[in-house]
Specification:
heterodimer, A: 84 residues, mainly alpha, Non-ribosomal Peptide Synthetase Peptidyl Carrier Protein, Chain A, 4 helices, 55% helix, globular, B: 190 residues, alpha+beta, Ribosomal Protein L22, Chain A, five-stranded antiparallel β-sheet, three-stranded antiparallel β-sheet, 5 helices, 8 strands
Chain lengths: 84, 190
């Protein structure tokens, strides 16, 4: 059964929290805000994408749409689209 | 604290550089503050009028440097840097202290880049090339001519000892210098 969108977002938040050593920063990042605008570094973003491959069992395509990488919401949407 | 690399020779002329430490607890808000303090000091050093020394955040998140004083900001969790290059077209800077794993490198580097720029053929490290792409992204995206795109879509090639970063017909040279724990990349379109 596919995950719910809320569950996927929560798991992505969990990955971000691991990268930042806790929840304090991640709790300030809303689901829809650009991760770059929220202060997520390029290093953390790439590390998150790698961690998502392991967490959700897929590989990012080289030509992934940039919009899919923008926010927790869009990342979750990409994961769910792969599960359909 | 990591030793700070000097601005590489090719990027140093006319470049005002300021470093600032990140204050505890070293999170993104403190990193942001350190970067803005560095930028204000760099604008002061560049001779910007007082009212132009504040660097607001643009709607897309980029720092808004005043006209005539293009600049860029980067930080690790401990250190921030700001560059201002009066009269340049656009500027990008990045500093990296963290390890770039092989899997992260797969995202960032294309096959040809790995083959030609990393040892044994090339002299660059994965950390340096990661920083180079991020610095180039800032310089190219700041030009305003491109839609936002993942920074790793930029292609790197070496010419006469300088890295040339390219994306969709736009190019910018990138200079790199590293210390053991910190790499600095500077991209300037003059």
């Amino acid at each position: 059964m596919p995950d719910s969108e809320a569950a996927v977002r929560k798991r992505i938040r969990g990955l971000l929290a691991q990268l930042y050593g806790g929840d304090s920063f991640v709790e300030t990042v809303s689901d829809g805000i650009s991760l770059r605008q929220a202060g997520v570094s390029s290093h953390a973003l790439v590390a998150l994408l790698v961690a998502m491959e392991d967490e959700f069992g897929f590989e990012w395509d080289d030509d992934v749409r940039p919009e899919a990488l923008r926010s927790i919401e869009s990342l979750a949407g990409h994961v769910l689209s792969l599960q359909e | 604290m990591a030793v700070r690399p000097e601005v590489p020779d090719g990027a140093a002329e006319g470049t005002l550089t300021v470093w600032r430490p990140v204050q505890p607890p070293y999170g993104p808000p403190e990193q942001f503050d350190a970067g803005r303090r560095a930028a204000g000091a760099a604008l002061f050093a560049a001779g910007a009028a007082e009212r132009k020394r504040f660097v607001p955040r643009e709607p897309d998140g980029r720092p808004g440097f005043p006209p005539g004083f293009p600049g860029s900001i980067a930080h690790t969790d401990r250190l921030a840097i700001a560059l201002v290059v009066p009269g340049a077209s656009s500027v990008g800077v990045d500093i990296e202290s963290a390890v770039i794993t092989a899997r992260m490198a797969r995202f960032v580097l294309r096959g040809l880049e790995s083959q030609t720029l990393l040892p044994p053929v090339g002299d660059y490290t994965m950390r340096e090339l990661f920083a180079a792409k991020e610095a180039a992204f800032k310089a190219l995206y700041a030009s305003g001519a491109l839609e936002e795109f993942p920074f790793w879509w930029i292609e790197l090639a070496e010419a006469d000892g300088v890295l040339i970063a390219s994306y969709r017909g736009s190019q910018v040279p990138v200079w790199i210098r590293s210390e053991p724990d910190l790499s600095l990349a500077v991209a300037i379109r003059r």
